[in-house]
TrEMBL record:
InterPro entries (alphabetical): Epimerase_deHydtase (IPR001509), Lipid_A_modif_metabolic_enz (IPR050177), NAD(P)-bd_dom_sf (IPR036291)
Annotated SUPFAM superfamilies: NAD(P)-binding Rossmann-fold domains
One Pfam entry name: Epimerase
Coiled coil: none
Protein name according to UniProt: Nucleoside-diphosphate-sugar epimerase
Residue intervals of the NAD-dependent epimerase/dehydratase domain: 4-151
Length: 291
């Protein structure tokens, strides 16, 4: 059994990832500045209060771990927002401190939460560039296996907006968790040096539908789920012009991971709720189809 530290364990991804690692038989140590909001999470594994900006907190949290999943970060998709200075300090200094602690503890397996926002468009985006670079440096210096996961979007939204989001670079947080657990296990198995993948939904649609979704999407959805066209119309779901799709074959080969949650699953869920007379207008999706 491996001991895996999850930083940012009280966040949206952190809770799902911690549950997934525990279910896969790992001993989980959860680290965060804030405790998890759901008391049921207490059963998942030890919780350590840790501010990643404080090196001694991080040294204590990492000590004795075989792998580290580094999710702790600030992004302003959450309310209330924080300053760019805080985003930089948490996302860059925090990542540096985590890697210094990994080095001190001899950790050879690290997974890093990068983002589709990777780039130069904002301070947050740049922190993911610097984070990935720090991770690559960690591999160069220590030989560790490092996975860089560029997650697409899974921030909580109203249910119907969430369904639309799945077609606009959204990913269900359950797919985020299975990808992260698979990457952790592959890193523990030393199956790569540095591996990077996008973590994205796969709606399994043909190229011509993907490229012209506004025209062909509803008809395609109807072939997958009878009644789809009526649902899209009844709820005025806005379809994008086209749907972005990345090649996830390397992740399938190396990690054995494929996304499982998609737009048609959302439509089927919506159909069930309609049939049950539920008021979906007031429903909230916490980064996934709600229970
Ligand atoms: N949510 C998305 O749509 C999305 C998309 C792409 C990438 N990501 C990345 O995935 C990771 C997880 O995102 P999330 O949406 O679950 O975030 P979240 O905000 O829900 O969770 C982040 C957690 O980090 C903790 N944290 C913040 N500062 C800390 C510090 N100094 N020390 C320790 N813990 C600290 C917070 O308390 C929180 O529990 C982040 O790295 C984020 O940048 C998220």
């Amino acid at each position: 059994m491996s001991t895996v530290l999850v930083t940012g364990a009280s966040g949206i991804a952190g809770r799902e990832v911690s549950r997934g690692l525990a279910a896969a038989g790992h001993q989980v140590r959860r680290a965060d500045v804030a405790p998890a909001p759901d008391p049921a999470d207490a059963g998942i594994g030890e919780f350590v209060r840790c501010d990643t900006r404080t090196p001694t907190d991080v040294l204590d949290a990492v000590d004795g771990c075989d792998a580290v999943v580094h999710l702790a970060a600030w992004h302003n998709a959450h309310r209330p927002g924080v300053s760019d200075a805080t985003i930089f300090a948490v996302n860059v200094d925090g990542t540096f401190n985590v890697l210094q602690a990994c080095r001190a503890a001899g950790v050879q397996s690290v997974v890093f939460a990068s983002s589709m926002a990777y780039g130069w468009g904002s301070v947050y985006s740049v922190t993911k560039v610097l984070g990935e670079d720090l991770m690559k440096m960690y591999h160069e210096v220590t030989g560790a296996s490092v996975a860089l996961l560029r997650y697409h979007g899974f921030v909580p939204e109203p249910y119907l907006r969430w369904g639309e989001r799945l077609l606009r670079n959204g990913v269900d947080v359950r797919d985020v968790a299975t990808a992260t657990v698979a990457a952790t296990e592959a890193a523990l198995g030393r199956r790569f040096d540095v591996f990077r993948t996008i973590v994205h939904s796969d709606h399994g649609m043909p190229e011509d539908v993907r490229a012209d979704f506004a025209t062909r999407g509803a008809e395609w959805a109807e072939t997958r789920l009878p009644g789809a066209v009526a649902l899209i119309e009844r709820h005025s779901l806005e379809l994008p012009q086209s749907v972005e799709q990345h090649d996830l074959s390397e992740a399938a080969e190396l990690l054995g991971w494929r996304p499982e949650h998609d737009f048609v699953e959302f439509l089927a869920d919506l159909q069930r709720r309609d049939a049950a007379g539920e008021d979906v207008g007031s429903l909230w999706a916490p980064g996934r189809i709600p229970a």
